Each structure stands twice: as C-alpha cells, then as structure tokens.
Fold this protein.
Amino acid sequence: MTIPVFDGHNDLLLALATGGTTVALVRDGGGPTQIDAPKAQAGGLAGGLFALWAWDEDEDFGPLEGASYDPPLPGALDEGAALRRVIAEVAEFRALAAAGVIRPCVTAAEIEAALPGEAMAAVLHLEGADCIDPEFRALHVLHALGLRSMGLVWSRKTRWAEGVPFRFPSGPDTGPGLTEEGRALVREAGTLGIALDLSHLNEKGCDDVAALTGKPLIASHSCAHALAPHARNLTDRQLDQIAETGGLVGLNFARAFLSPDGQMGADVRLETVIRHLDHLLEHLGEGGVALGSDFDGAQVPEEIGDAAGLPALIGAMERAGYGEALIRRIAHGNWVDVLRRTWGA
Ligand code: ZN
C-alpha cells in the first residue's frame, strides 16, 4: 500500500545550492540525493518542509562517533553571508517549482490539494534565523516569497537564541533561553503567521517559545531522548509540553539521534524507528506524531535509504499493528492538521 508522505524536514535545497546536484537531475533522477522526483514517486513522498539553511564552510563538526562526543557549539554567522546562502536556496526552490518537481504551498488546503499530484507539495522553511536582521526586513521579504515555517536557530549561537550542540550523551538543557531580540522575533513570526519550529533549540529556548506563543508547539525533525540520550532529542517533559498545546513532533531518521549509542554509523533497524514512534505516540497521542526524515541532511537507516524506501517504514508500521487510519495521520494527516491550526487556513 502506498500512502502519501508529507515530511517535516529535508535539505535538498542545500544540495542544489552547493552544486551537489542539479534541478534536471532532481527532475529526471540519477543524481546522488535522497530525494528526487522518481524516488519521491516510487516511495510516495508527496511533499514536505524544504529547509533553507546557512552555513560556514570553515566549520567542521566532525563525525558523531565515539563513546561520547561534544563538538564545540559554533558561533553566530555573519548576517549578510547567511542571507546570500539563503537567497541561493530560495532560487533553487523556485527553479524546482518551474521544473514541475514541487508545488509551493502556503495553506493547508493547498497542501491537501497537491498531495495526490505528481509535484511535491512544498513549504518553504528557514532552519535558523541567522539571515534575519533585527528590523525583520529579510523576514518580511522571505514571507512574501512563501516562507511559512522557521526555527529560530540551527545548532549554533545566534542573536536570537542558542541551539543545542551535537553532544552525546547529554540532555537538551545546554544554555540560555531567548534574548529580548529573540522574543521580538517570535512575536513578529506570530504576526506574519509563520510556524515556529523547536528542533535544534535548547531546552530553555523551547520553554521561552512555549510561554510566548499560543500556537501548537512543533518540532519538525526530532527523536525521543528517553530512547537515545542525545542533546538533539526531546525529553519526556518536552513531549508532554508539546502534547498540551496540541502540537506535533516529526520523527528524525538520522541514525545518530535514533540509536541508543548516538553513533552516526550505527546499524539502526526499522524496529528502532518503530520504538521511537511508539514512545512519541505514548506522550503525544495519535494526533501529535509525524515524520521529519532529514533526507539529504543525515545518514538514515539502510532499510529506508532514501525517499524510495518510505514504503519499508510504512510496512514496519503495519507489522507493528498500526491501523491504516493511524498510518495516514503519521504519514501526512497530522502535519496538514497542525499547519492548518497554526496558519488558520
Ligand atoms: Zn536540522
């Protein structure tokens, strides 16, 4: 059974902007990315949040391996340099749309209408507000270009807040909460109707966002800390906090966050993925669990491999006794619902 998947996180735009692939290869297949149009068709990947992400090529985070690891938390990016990176990725997003690979969406109704189609329903997401100026001009321009979801931080320090380091083992309470400017950005995003993403934010920052927004809390690509004690994962207290707001967690497929030993190269089986889904379901209920693959940004379990492998995960859900209605909610329904409640359309 192919069930359409709307997924909470991918880094395909980064691969395009850095020359790792081309729009033609993504359209026709045969390229190196975990997502392309033929793989998406084969696996039922019907859409998702497409991340804009800025980086500094001099930074090296090293392999996430060893009994414990704790790479230093990178400092703030230059705002102008970050904006140039993000503009390049927005241009790739628009080129994918022009090529018919994606259909940009700014409402839940548009996502629902696009899900059965050939082009992937695509929501523009900003993973870290490094490119945003304190007057929010860039935020307004990106909103006009279709931005409807944003994380305040990636795993680094910013003027707004602090991300969690890629530390293992560790809880997510690793630093200070939002700055005054960060609080203002949360309010501005709320005014514009941009969903806020908690993945990569440290625990104090998550608490601050929870206190500031009346919207459902969303973590687009995160796993359960109770099963894998990585700083990037969400504790049971955080899951319960998200549940109280009618929010959602998209399960990250990254092996380093799924595996109890935190290893990037770990042999993570589908049973482990199901264990995380079971744990999320226990805390968030059937309306609060979804997927956030991190395709083209992470090493994922071999049994999934890439977008074409999504039916293997759906099959594992079936074998675990998940009924079709629940699988449809996890695969796409819960994302559509939470975005509708967040955006109001
Ligand atoms: Zn991420």
Observations:
- The beta strands are 5-10, 45-52, 102-104, 120-127, 147-151, 195-197, 218-222, 248-251, 289-291.
- Residues 5-343 form a domain with the TIM Barrel fold (CATH 3.20.20.140).
- The chain has one domain: 5-343.
